[in-house]
């Protein structure tokens, strides 16, 4: 029970693990960054069941890494972040659609709408504002994370390449006593 409330290795360990997992992908920095950006972009949309499929399609057209897209989806869109994402997209959507005055005093019975699963009745009050409200934060976060991931992966891969070259040089170096005489 203690591990659930206060993990022994800390709360940041999963974040560090995902970061290293993304950095160690054997793809170009653009491919990794495009995959992460696509995963983050689709995580803002209200269509939870198809996030991975949407991320894979976007990643395919951007020539990105599918693994990075899956990691971006899983890291950004998860049960801990969805309530915040939904609240933000809901508010931004209503602001952009100018629906504040129309919904004043009205309530939307989401349980009844989801129970019926009638898409046409669900679209106007719920999905439309969330989809419209998802576009601005999705663009901002995916572009920012693309740039951050691209830079970070470039630096990581360059340093890794230098380390590997140095190790190879040291292994191939001939000891001074074994030098052939001329």
TrEMBL record:
The chain crosses the membrane at residues 48-73, 130-153. Residues 12-160 form the DUF2062 domain. Keywords: Membrane, Transmembrane, Transmembrane helix. Coiled coil: none annotated. This is DUF2062 domain-containing protein.
């Amino acid at each position: 029970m203690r591990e659930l409330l206060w993990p022994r290795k800390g709360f940041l360990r999963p974040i560090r693990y995902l970061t290293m997992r993304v950095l160690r992908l054997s793809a170009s920095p653009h491919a990794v960054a495009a995959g992460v950006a696509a995963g983050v972009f689709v995580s803002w949309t209200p269509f939870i069941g198809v996030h991975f499929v949407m991320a894979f399609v976007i990643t395919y057209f951007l020539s990105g890494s599918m693994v990075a897209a899956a990691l971006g989806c899983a890291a950004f869109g998860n049960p801990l972040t969805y309530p915040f994402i939904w609240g933000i997209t809901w508010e931004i959507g209503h602001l952009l659609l100018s629906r504040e005055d129309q919904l004043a005093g009205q309530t939307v019975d989401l349980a009844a709408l989801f129970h019926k699963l009638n898409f046409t009745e669900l679209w106007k009050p719920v999905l439309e504002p969330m989809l419209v409200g998802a576009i601005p934060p999705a663009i901002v976060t995916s572009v920012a994370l693309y740039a951050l991931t691209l830079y970070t992966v470039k630096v990581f891969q360059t340093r890794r390449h230098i380390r590997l070259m140095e190790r190879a040089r040291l292994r191939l170096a001939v000891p001074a006593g074994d030098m052939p005489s001329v």
